[in-house]
Amino acid sequence: MAETTGFCRDCMTPATAGERRCLQCGSPRLVRHAELEALPIAHIDCDAFYASVEKRDNPDLRDRPVIVGGGRRGVVSTCCYIARINGVRSAMPMFKALKACPEAVVVKPEMEKYARVGREVRDMMRALTPLVEPLSIDEAFLDLTGTERLHKDTPARVLARFATAVEREIGITVSVGLSYCKFLAKVASDFEKPRGFSVIGRAEALTFLRDQPVTLIWGVGKAFAATLESDGIRTIGQLQQMDENTLMRRYGMMGKRLFRLSRGEDERAVHIDHEAKSVSAETTFNHDYGTAAELLPILRTLSEKVANRLKASDTAGRTVVLKLKDTEFRIRTRNRQLPDRTQLADRIFRVAAPMLDHELDGTKYRLLGVGVSDLASDAMADPMDLVDTGATRRAKAEEAMDAVRAKFGTKALETGYTFGTGSRGKPQRDQEN
């Protein structure tokens, strides 16, 4: 068995396997793991972020249950851990939250302040590694591979010092998950909140996952979990006993994700944050067009281009944006927000096409564009559609088309929308935002 290495998170003194407290400072906050010095992928999550910022700015709230929310929606945006102990949860209607915790202090959210603090934390992350991939205002993945020479220390110890620095300099706390892949790093960061530091190594991954509920896997929410349960699948261990083809036949693209993540296989890289707001493609025509027959093939081709970029960068977006420019150079933009992020050409096109149809009022257009905004990791993109069962089949077909095109070129396969359309189905100029 590999020797277990560790250290005290408060004073960084090395710790051996048998100690319950640090021999130097007496702290119980020891972290030990056989693979501790070899794991480079981290997920950092700010603890009860909005509420923590409010407590930092108002010390009178420090020991009180705090709920951030209210306003027009009348729901809980987030709450501190004291409120959570009393049964308050994010997205809970405010009247239910106050019934569960009547002594709670309700604070109206200040998003600009939270964004400012989030940027401060992210700047500190970038001092550790250039490979920082934000998931939201208060959490991000980091890849510290190869940073030992820069910091003259292991990723684990660097991250422990980072957590202490955030607490000291910014006044909030973070939890750290450390592993060999993004999936398990994110799982680990939830283990011991707040102020957690948890590790999942490669050697223990299969055993650890075996008894976990299927809801631990990204994209398995209540609805899909109910579908799996109706098929007799409740634990990840049951998924580990199934082959990939069987899972894909049953659940389409989600089956592929179930197969891989249930085995701790997640090869997605941590991508640098370029602060990209959207991914889009547009084309200016040689001739003006104004009919569905003329514009739909172009929209389909542009949707495929956007989808390819999203897939290549392991990102997905929640808002589909349509752009049109008429012969007088007036621009029309329309958008629709989706319940889940997507990176599929089929879904982008099916959302954009009705918006385009609504603008076909006899106007001639010289430019058409489509894009996806509100970008984030593709970890939970395109879950299985329990209403539109055909969506799963189309997603599986799109994956097969992607594989063929990757091998034989983009013209190896075309959809019915673009086949035989010539240059109208091929953008002449495009741009990415």
From TrEMBL:
Record has Transcription regulation as a keyword: no
Which note does the record give on the cofactor? Binds 2 magnesium ions per subunit.
- Residue ranges constituting the UmuC domain according to the UniProt record: 41-221
Q: Which reaction does it catalyse?
A: DNA(n) + a 2'-deoxyribonucleoside 5'-triphosphate = DNA(n+1) + diphosphate
What Pfam family is a match for this entry?
IMS
Places the protein is found: Cytoplasm
Q: Spell out the Gene3D superfamilies in the cross-references.
A: 3.30.70.270, 3.40.1170.60, 5' to 3' exonuclease, C-terminal subdomain, DNA polymerase, Y-family, little finger domain
**GO cellular component annotations of the record:** cytosol
Molecular-function annotations in GO = damaged DNA binding; DNA-directed DNA polymerase activity; magnesium ion binding
Query: Which keywords annotate this record?
Result: Cytoplasm, DNA damage, DNA repair, DNA replication, DNA-binding, DNA-directed DNA polymerase, Magnesium, Metal-binding, Mutator protein, Nucleotidyltransferase, Transferase
Question: What are the names of the required cofactors?
Answer: Mg(2+)
Q: Which GO terms describe its biological process?
A: DNA repair; DNA-templated DNA replication; error-prone translesion synthesis; SOS response
UniProt-listed Enzyme Commission number(s) = 2.7.7.7
Which residues constitute the catalytic centre?
139
For the site labelled Substrate discrimination, the residues are 50
Binding, Mg(2+): 45, 138
Q: What is its main location?
A: cytoplasm
Ranges in a coiled coil: none
Q: Give the family from UniProt.
A: Belongs to the DNA polymerase type-Y family.
Q: How does it assemble?
A: Monomer.
What role does it play? Poorly processive, error-prone DNA polymerase involved in untargeted mutagenesis. Copies undamaged DNA at stalled replication forks, which arise in vivo from mismatched or misaligned primer ends. These misaligned primers can be extended by PolIV. Exhibits no 3'-5' exonuclease (proofreading) activity. May be involved in translesional synthesis, in conjunction with the beta clamp from PolIII.
Please state what the protein is called. DNA polymerase IV
What organism does this protein naturally occur in? Oricola cellulosilytica
